[in-house]
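Recall the central idea of this unit: under ordinary conditions, the amino acid sequence of a chain determines the structure it adopts. In this exercise we apply that idea directly, starting from the sequence alone.
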Amino acid sequence: MRSALNAAVIVALLVAPVYAEPAEVLPRAKTPEEVGLSSERLARVRAVTAGHIETGHVPGAVILVARHGKIAYFESLGFRDRAAGAPMTKDALFRIYSMTKPITSVALMMLVEEGRLQISDPVSRYLPELSKPKVGVEKSDGAGGKTLEVVDAPREITVQDLLRHTSGFTYGSRGDSLVHRAYREAHVGSRDDTNADLVAKLGRLPLLYAPGTRWEYGVSTDVLGRLVEVVSGMTLGRFFEERIFRPLGMADTAFWVPADKMSRAAQPWQQPDGPAMTPRFDVAVRARYESGGGGLVGSTLDYLRFTTMLLNGGELGGVRLLGRKTVDFMTADHLGTIAIAAPGLGFGLGFQVRREAGVAGLPGSTGEYGWAGNGGTLFWIDPQERLIALYMVQVSDYDRVLLRNQFRTMVQSAIADAPKR
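Accordingly, the structure predicted from this sequence is:
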């Protein structure tokens, strides 16, 4: 059985799939060295990824590294659908989960630039269901248990709170407090709900923390998606399509995969004898829930278009979505003294941002920014190095952090040229 698996992996790694390569937004560098990267060190990334495919930790991957406006490394390895034996292709479509969040944040900031709202506005001005928020406080019941006391929040939730995850909203899966349990019992994030339904549910639930006091990862960006709908008068999917995807040429990114593209969908893989994987949503189903926090499916080159727009200061191919100063504002740290459980890192308006070169557990540059997805996908942009890196996989919850950190460290080690003075 093991030898058969290894043989299948070797075939998937060595046989190049036949398909029309999609149009690339950036030209190819002749060699990685042309843009100051080491071919030898990038080859390590391939070798390590191939090893993970052989062991079953990774079904398949698409890896892309661009620098100084050129693609230096772009490769597909392993399987798009391991159960079916279908090789990975560069145009594969991935559940990008929380890599949806930066796109939703850009959508909101486009409306800010149009004068439709400000990030200091109370969210309840547009979403009255969220007026007069309450905070859940756990109290001892005197018999070894706990009760949930609901108290008035000291202030309203602002749009900035949603963008930087200081709203007090959480994910029901991120703990077992009474507030987390209430989220789970209310089925917050159900794919059967609309964005309006989500906000209505949240309006009846207490916050985990008072707004502006703690960084707490949660459904803030999903609420932001509903805010885009209310302010723009469009569904979130329509806003994305008309205002972001079509202008940028992101033809393969949407909240679902139509039948004529299902042969390109990357499928998750439960590694043998590994821990159970969180169920992944069916990309063929057009759900009612257009999750601004984690619902998109897209290709590597589509996300390269989006990230190149950001690195260019809001513009791509003559199409400007944001002003340069808005991108600078979004990618600055907005937490200040608000704690985040990641040394050396902060959070901007839709992105994790690096505050300093040291302290963090991974190498990088001050000012780099990015985010990741629940299925293992990762991107970051380093303005100092003019670098974009994309890691596209569909892996187990238990493997994704190790894999992403390993990839990030190895790509950083491939920067080989002298710093510009």
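The chain has two domains: 1-93+373-421, 97-255+290-347.
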